[in-house]
Amino acid sequence: MTPFKVGDRVERIGALVPDWMKYGVITKVIPDKHGIEWATQYEVQFGLQLNGTCYQNELRLVKKAP
Predict the structure, then answer these.
(1) Any idea where the domains of the chain sit in the sequence?
(2) CA atoms within 13 A on the CB side of 16
(3) Is the Cβ–Cβ distance between 51 and 44 less than 8 Å?
């Protein structure tokens, strides 16, 4: 089972991530064709008109406020 689902708010991690691609929402889950969980890709919407595709290890779930 993938750790993220459509609608989850995520943070893109890494030292070279630009500010405008730091936080987004998962819009599509793209499973690996061989069933490798860590190779699952996610389409993420950053802002209004910027989409990107990231691997599972490039993302971290943003905790929701209680």
Answers:
(1) 9-61
(2) 0
(3) yes
